[in-house]
Every structure is written in C-alpha cells, then in structure tokens.
Amino acid sequence: MTGNPVNIFDFEKLAQQKLDSAAFDYYAGGAADEVSVRDNRAAFDRIRLRPRVLVDVQARDLSTTLLGQNLAFPLVIAPLALAGMAHMEGDVGIAKAAAERGIPYTLSTFATSSIEEIASAVESALWQQLYIYNDRGITRQLVARAEAAGFQALVVTVDTPLGGLRERDIRNRFRLPPGLRLKNLNDFQLDQVGEKQDDSAIAAYATTQLDASLSWKDIEWLRSISSLPVLLKGILHPADAQLALNHGASGIIVSNHGGRQLDTTLATIDALPEIAAVVDGQLPILLDGGIRRGTDIVKAIALGAAAVLVGRPVLWGLAVNGAAGVGQVLDMLRNEFDTALALCGCPSVAAITSDLIFK
C-alpha cells in the first residue's frame, strides 16, 4: 500500500510492510485456524444500526467515566505484549499517545518497558495487566510495583491456564528478537525457556510459568493483597459473569483474547448481551476483540458495554510511525465514533441505547 492511511485497515497493511514477518505474525495471528480472529470482526459487520433523526447533535460529548476515571471517549488500550518489536518507542510511545488523548493504557506483564519506566514517562490513567503465576511471589511483586508507581487498576487475564495453539508462532519458532527484554519479569527472556522444536517460546513460557489450577479463590486472594480495582479479562459465559459479581470483581472484560487462545469461541460482541443481562449494571463491562471502526464502539455500548479495549490497531499505528502513529489511530477511532454518534442521533455517550440495534 502507498499513500496516507485513512482507516485502521490501511494502517494494518502499512504495518505488515514494515514489520518482520515473524513479528507481524505474532501480533496478527490467533489460535489454530483463526476462526475466532475473523469472527470477532465479522460479527460487528453483521450488526445493523437503526439511527434516530431530527435530534440536536450540534454539541456532542464523547466523554465518559469508568472506575471513577474520566475518559475522553469510551476506549481503553488493551495490554499489548512485546510492543517493542513494533517500534523502538514501544510501550512508552503508546503510553504517551494515550495520555495526550485522555485514554487509559493497560500495560502488559510481557511489556518490553518496565512499570517504572511507563510511570515516569506519563502522568495519566495506567492499568496493569496480570497473570497468576505458579510462583505467587511474582504476581505479588508486580501488584506492589504497580501500586507504588501509581497505577489505577489491575486487569487479570483469566483465560490463559496455558498458551493457545498459535500455529503461526509455532511455524516461525517465535523468539523475542535480540536486544528486547521482558522488563517486568526481572529481565526474564523468552529464549530462556527450554526449547521445543514444535513450539514457540510464548507457548512454552505459559505452560511452565502460569498456574493452570487458577480458580475463583485466587481472585479473592488478589483482592486481599491490593486495594486497586480488579477487572477480569476473558469472560465469555454469563455464568462466569455471575461468579465475577459473587467474588467482588470491579469490572468484567468480555474477551476471547483476540482469538489467540481457544479457536471457534463465539465472537465477543455476540457474547455481550447475555453477560450484560446478568450483570444488570452492577459493575462496568468492557469489551475487546474486532474493534476497527467508530460504529463498532457504538454497537458495543448499545449492547451493554461501558467502553471498549483496542489492541492490534494500536500496534499497527506504532509500527508505522511510533507514538505519532498510535496517536493517528486513536484520533481516527475518536473521529469515527464522533461521526457515528452524530449520525445515530446521539449527542452523548449516555444517549446510546439498545434501540439503536436493529434486531
């Protein structure tokens, strides 16, 4: 592709031209046949909007409040592992672009920048993504560091008792490129994992380090060691949404890990309505997976989400032009969302209601 990108799909094409093929595959790929990766996107395209007209939308308010934090518009940046592969500015560049636009950034445990580096680079809403390790001391240390650095929420990934079968990474025998380190894990490197000829370092790491016995009691343990809000990322079943309520979660993120864990799961936007019915406004619901347009954000909110998380598009912007590229991607989504609000007859986020969805 040549010329200036005009949408997220253009950014993806440009990013693929810039990135090493193994890095692009790591970011873009999913589990097995990647059915869920494709369906996350296709499900949004299947949903039809039914706008209202003759509503005064001259002055529009895109802002919202989430967990007591003010958001410029209802979007949070999802945790992005190994962002340093995309561009030398890495996580710091993402955090700066987000901070300039009033958007929270969720730092991955697998970041190539440390908690402390991010906190010193920006003064804004920062969330910390966590896994529960076999060695609870690792998780406890990450929580303590995030609290000390002023992070405002913990996002626990609950759908990864082990790594999904990411066949692109297996074919590439994916390893962290030279010069990059996982700085939140005491400089642990993925090439320190015992190598298997038919596996990737990420999958091997998940199998050896993450706790496959993780259960709801561990969520209670995490809440006992921190006063920060705890959001659970990876909920798809309404029964699990009820259990999240029962065990004191501060929020739910409806997610299938971008289609990177279990293939052929339902699309996240398809899972949202039943979960919203169970939660019934008792805690905020966020959604990730497949968000590429401003209309997608409207659809998610109309079906029960308070906000959405965006992952891969941020990496495409980073790969194309560092922090400036991330800013372009975020501005695109904001502008598309603003346009969609106006054309749906919604002067504010609060005006987005379920009757905008044609059933």
Q: Could you tell me the strand content as a percent range? A: 5-15%
Largest sheet: 8 strands, parallel
Overall body shape = globular
Strand runs, count: 12
* Helix content, binned percent: 40-55%
Can you give the mean pLDDT?
Answer: 93
In terms of structural class, how would the helical and strand content be classed?
A: alpha/beta
**Biggest sheet strand line-up:** 4-11-10-9-8-7-6-5
N-to-C order of helices and strands: HHHEEEEHEHEHEHHHEHEHEHEHE
Oligomer designation: single chain
Unreliable parts:
none
Number of helices: 13
Distance between the termini: 37 Å
The Rg value, from CA coordinates, equals 19 Å
Textual characterization of the structure:
With 359 residues, this protein is of the alpha/beta class. Helix content is 42%, strand content 12%. The protein is built from 13 helices and twelve strands. Strand 9 (251-254), helix 11 and strand 10 form a beta-alpha-beta unit. Helix 1 packs antiparallel against helix 13 and helix 10 (238-246) crosses helix 11.
